[in-house]
Amino acid sequence: MTIKQLHQLFLGSKGISTDTRKISKDILFFALRGDNFNGNKFTEEAFLKGASHAIIDDIEFAKSPKTILVDDVLQTLQELATFHRNYLNLPIISLTGSNGKTTTKELINAVLSKKHKTVATKGNLNNHIGVPLTLLSMTKDTSIGIVEMGANHLMEIDQLCKIVQPNYGYITNFGKAHLEGFGSIEGVIKGKSELYDYLLKDNKYIFLNADDSIQKEKLNSHIKKIGFSQNNSEFYIIRMTNSKPFVKVFVEDVTITSNLIGSYNFTNIAVAILIGKFFNIELDDIKEAIENYVPTNNRSQILDKGSNKIILDAYNANPTSMKAALESFSNLSGRNKIAILGDMFELGEESKKEHQYIVNLIETLEFDQIYLVGENFYTTESSKSYIHHFKSFNELKVALNGKLIKDASILIKGSRGMALEKTLDFL
């Protein structure tokens, strides 16, 4: 069966699933393989739950005329997604970066959906499987697609670009994330810039933070760049006026007050404004979209618990985002500032140095208590009595359970695997 024929089956179906737990009638089941699972084994279950066809790559399970045997299910899914993207022929904005991808994507979506029928990446489905599924969720009614791209090694963004074929792109920043895969900050810059390489090759549009020296240097000679800046009048001027605690921006005599904390969220807001203007969204609508956006899913959420105000930023962490969060939190007004910090993952050989760097940074800032959790933070050194080390989450729980914390501002941040949102149960 050709990809074109498979696409016709897809158009006549009710969608795609790679998980038999989420299958309903007339769904196409793609039997993906993984390191610890083989989706081919669930083919019969998929049919029992109503799947119209199953795309498999193991002939042992080709026991029904409704199975479609291919060489590689994942590759077929990706090729189908690209075929569908070209069939729809709609403009697609892709974004990547070390920090802020999901928040930026959601802000852009909130702004553009004021005028356009948009489809954006759900959650963080931003890898070699999630990106094709995002493309295949778009329909003839979609007028703009917004696709987030994640990567933890070189050539991954390049591969995703070939699948998505974006018309526009934006890189949020270059930070110390996934150093284990990229090898160094230079590797991060090279890997994320694969989005630029793709767009530059075909002379496509690039959105630019003109105050980021790395971005500006890489795009210096590119004609189709649309940038924002706080001071450079060559670009669209958007200024941050406050970030204590919520970020406020000033653009064209209009003040926009967000529900996002931390100065590091300024660029996420600014590019959403820039892209909104590019796609002819009225500034009043942009303002309304940004002011109505409230972060969820453990990303810079503001929570009140008793007399305490909690900043829950436990979705992910790397040295760059941890530094930004700590500096921003330290600058907030008020007393009794407490931070509960979990290990940062995927740092490879740099892990010990980067965790110690964060502890050294903490010692230069103003906090009342710091609780460090995880095997990496446990090995760090500090002479400060207010910095406490715990090897495991359970050790932290024992220490804090029953401890009365009142009238405090509390930052909770760590990598996803630390699941520090569990501290809410006993704070």
Strand content: 15-25%
Class by helix and strand content? alpha/beta
Q: What does the oligomeric state look like here?
A: single chain
**Mean pLDDT, all residues:** 93
Strand arrangement in the largest pleated sheet? 6-7-5-8-9-10-11
**Structural domains: how many:** 3
CATH architecture of the largest domain: 3-Layer(aba) Sandwich
CATH class of the largest domain: Alpha Beta
- Estimate the helix proportion, in percent: 25-40%
Poorly predicted parts: none
SS summary, helix count: 16
Shape: globular
Give Rg in angstroms.
23 Å
Determine the CATH superfamily of the largest domain.
Mur-like, catalytic domain
User: Which topology of the largest domain does CATH recognise?
Assistant: UDP-N-acetylmuramoyl-L-alanine:D-glutamate ligase
In angstroms, what separates the terminal alpha carbons? 57 Å
**Main pleated sheet:** 7 strands, parallel
Q: Any key phrases for this structure?
A:
single chain; 427 residues; alpha/beta; Udp-n-acetylmuramoylalanyl-d-glutamate--2,6- Diaminopimelate Ligase, Chain: A, domain 1; UDP-N-acetylmuramoyl-L-alanine:D-glutamate ligase; Protein-Tyrosine Phosphatase, Chain A; 3 domains; 7-stranded parallel beta sheet; 6-stranded mixed beta sheet; 21% strand; globular
